Amino acid sequence: MKIDAIDLKILTVLQQDGRVSNQDLAEQVFLSPSACLRRVRALEESGMIARYIALLDATAFGLEVDSFVQVTMRRDVEHWHENFTAALQSWPEVVGSYIITGEANYLLRVRARNLKHYSSFVLEKLYKTPGVLDIRSNIVLQTLKDTQMLAPELLMGEAGVNG
Question: For 2, phi and psi rounded to 5 degrees?
Answer without folding.
Answer: -85, 135
